[in-house]
Specification:
Shape: globular
Structural class: mainly beta
Largest sheet: 9 strands, antiparallel
Number of helices: 0
Number of strands: 9
Distance between the termini: 18 Å
Strand content: over 45%
Helix content: under 10%
Length: 120
């Protein structure tokens, strides 16, 4: 972060209107479509292990290996499938927990924007 958030005790911003930065997506993770990922890291712990931010992905299908993460969906819809066949359907207002190391397949049906806290 290079703006005023680094020097204050707290802040607020509109998640829906926050400008996100493009994040490169490894082509080997893309299963279908041409998804694009963007993010805004709001804070990071001193050791770099705990991240809080806003993340977005446009429609498409990708694979991932998860961090220990809690997130709340602001907008959009997605199906998150796990190796064991379990699937989560997430949409606006849903909160989800992901376990570090879980292998997932994300099918984003409508551009998904979420607020997250992850431990990496």
């Amino acid at each position: 972060m290079s703006d005023d958030r680094t020097s204050v005790l707290g802040f607020a911003l509109s998640v829906a209107d926050a400008a996100l930065e493009p994040v490169p997506l490894d082509p080997s993770q893309v299963i279908a479509g041409t998804p694009e990922v963007s993010e805004l890291v709001l804070s990071e712990s001193d050791d770099g292990r705990v991240l809080r931010g806003i993340w977005q992905m446009t429609p498409g299908v990708v694979t991932d290996t998860e961090a220990d993460e809690l997130f709340v969906v602001l907008s959009g819809r997605a199906t998150i499938e796990f190796e064991d066949g379990t699937a989560l359907e997430v949409g606006p207002g849903d909160v989800a927990l992901l376990t570090e190391g879980a292998k997932t397949r994300w099918t984003v049906h409508e551009t998904l924007r979420k607020v997250y806290q992850a431990t990496v």
